Amino acid sequence: MKLYYITLNNADEARQIGRALLEQKLAVCVNWFPITCAYIWKGEITEEPEMVLIVKTQAGYREQIEGVIRQYINYTNFIAEISPTEINQNFLEWLNAEVPLNSLKKM
């Protein structure tokens, strides 16, 4: 199993990307929520709202997930792949039933 932590500008982007990933069977579940981002830009500290999209999926889908994201945004965002070490069995069974394991599925 893999989790993807993805930063986006707003809830509409998160909703569109999340639904596209679900429709294409690239994820079993997605969550999005607002956060505040603080960062250094041109020597100044900047704060602004941001949206986080968390994608729950199988291993081997990073390229396809990034491809879907690029269909909806054209700016540089953050995408981190996280490998959980322990997952409850019921969730894994659901994931395995909905998203093909180790697929090389093309978009």
SSE map:
Blueprint: E1 2-8, H1 11-23, E2 29-41, E3 44-57, H2 62-72, E4 79-82, H3 89-98
Antiparallel strand pairs: 1-3, 1-4, 2-3
Helix pairs in contact: 1-2
Describe it:
With 107 residues, the protein is α+β, with helices and mostly antiparallel strands. It contains three helices and four strands. Strands 2-3-1-4 form a four-stranded antiparallel β-sheet, with helices on one face. Strand 2 and strand 3 form a beta hairpin. Helix 1 packs across helix 2. It is elongated and about 45 Å long. The mean pLDDT is 93.
**Parts with pLDDT < 50 across at least 5 consecutive residues:** none
Q: Let me know the average pLDDT.
A: 93
Order the strands across the largest sheet as they lie in space: 2-3-1-4
Quickly give the structural class.
alpha+beta
Radius of gyration: 15 Å
- Give the fraction of residues assigned to helices: 25-40%
What is the N-to-C succession of helices and strands?
Answer: EHEEHEH
Largest sheet: 4 strands, antiparallel
Q: Report the sheet-strand fraction.
A: 35-45%
- How far the N terminus sits from the C terminus, by CA atoms, comes to 20 Å
Helical segment count: 3
Number of strands: 4
Overall geometric form: elongated
